[in-house]
Amino acid sequence: MTRESRARIALRAYPKAIRASRGEEMIATLLDASGESSGRHRRELAALVAGGLRARARQRSLPGPTRDLADGFCYAATGLLALATAESVGIDARFAPHGASLWHLLVVGGALAAALAGYDRIASLAGAAWLIDPLAVVRGPQFGPLLAFDVVPMVCFLVMLILPRRGPRRPARLAWLIPVVALGILAGAVGPRSYWFLSPLVVLVPLALARFQRDPRLAIACALFAWEVAMFEVVQVADGQALPLGVLPTVLLFATAPVVFALTLMQTHAERDGETT
Amino acid sequence: MVASVELRRPSYFALAALIDGPLHGYAIVRRAGELSQGTVRLSTGTLYALLERAIEEGLVVAGDEYLEGGRRRRDYALTAAGRGELAAEARRLASASRAVAARLRATRKAAPA
């Protein structure tokens, strides 16, 4: 394999647009800079791959449909962590806390704190740890059906890990832990209510609809949340119970996410067409 | 134009390489090496990342592609904003250097052997 063909392979780390506009001159520069030294050539190739990956990461952080979708998944992950933290606080408020429940609260609360402060990668790993732990230990024979309930959070955490939100860290946002804990204590005081976790949607859904044209990210997060509720319904059926919400609402909940994703993409295309005409 | 911000060493010497006129990628690598007395060795990946950013910030403009010795090249030139940014950074570095040198001179006798 020639040096040039190695350089062309390394260049594939860059996004297509950069390869098309600068690729040939980058290869020329790399071959000149490598000189006769094979060590220098290897270092140049490694630096080119690193530069390409950085360029891809930078491109993903720019505004656009990919960033909107990724942000929506990150918001949904944060919302699901808030819900899990509130639920955990509620359980500890109603029953005497013990080692496992406190550990659970620490992991899920820590994940939420990291997500709020802007440490998305840490939040996604802690969130995945929160999911995996009860899967393996607590669920036992119900493992299969309950696994379905973990699909949406797991996908959200995966997106959060691969495409974290960009921007400054915001420790001040840790203040959001206060209403989350308050909601948990309230839920613990009133006892188990299957759908108490839908209450924040009363505020969030109208807000998401009002902002959709300007900023679809909250709508994407709400749609993912709807999908999670629909999954909850499916788990109930798998557990031998009738659909608590009924068939049509469950189908509508499942349909929400694809519709919102499609509308986001259509809106982006329309904006792009508007810019080019 | 962007507000004057501190330039990192590779960016500083890559921009400084263009003071005397437009250069293509490899010529910038060589000139930056000379100006920094061998302390800055720009890799191709680093060079194009910082050129891309400098173009976005209006510090550098890219010319058209051309062939030279069978290789595709493109010249990059410093803009007026780029010269201003470079001058501001040079002043910052000179001022920092003077301040430290003055303190070293003032405390020379006090330093333990």
What are the low-pLDDT stretches of chain A, counting only 5+ consecutive residues below 50?
137-141
Counted beta strands of chain B: 3
Kindly report the greatest chain-chain contact and the residue count on each side: A-B, 22 and 17 residues
Q: Mean of the pLDDT scores of chain A? A: 82
Described by strand count, sense and barrel closure, the largest sheet of chain B is: 3 strands, antiparallel
Helix content of chain A: over 70%
What kind of oligomer do you see? heterodimer
Number of strands of chain A: 0
Helicity range of the residues of chain B? 40-55%
> Could you say which structural class the secondary elements and strand pairing of chain A correspond to?
mainly alpha
Mean pLDDT of chain B equals 89
Write the layout of secondary structure elements.
The complex is a heterodimer of chains A (277) and B (113).
Chain A: H1 3-11, H2 16-34, H3 38-61, H4 65-94, H5 99-117, H6 120-137, H7 143-149, H8 151-162, H9 177-190, H10 201-211, H11 217-238, H12 247-276
Chain B: H1 9-16, E1 23-24, H2 25-35, H3 44-56, E2 60-68, E3 71-78, H4 80-106
Antiparallel strand pairs in B: 1-3, 2-3
Helix pairs in contact in B: 1-2
